Protein: DUF485 domain-containing protein
Amino acid sequence: MTYPWQPAPARPPRAEYQPSREPLGHHSDLRVLRGAYRWQRRTATLAALGYFTLFLVLSASAPGVMMRTVADGIPAGLLLALVQLPVTWLAIALYEHTARRHVDPLADRIRKVAELDARRGAVR
Structure:
């Protein structure tokens, strides 16, 4: 526009996408999925790190307990350190179990709904 009194050039009408139906997906589904994934992470993390933190606290604050022999001259500290590996495996197994049971079905359902919405949009 060169002069302020000149009219603005006419813009072509913009075609807006207006679906005839509401999309199938809901934001609440994503919220539920995030919550399930958050619970899964916290459970597995607390299982592994909680045990390791307990081991560190016992090592620092109760050296007498850690030096006590448990069986055949093996100190309790060494035994608790060796148990860390199975606890880590347990945390991994717990993570996998909660993924298969809670998170994966939610993600699959959301994926299917998104595919249906995409197909519905492509048909138009």
User: Anything to note?
Assistant: The mean pLDDT is 82.
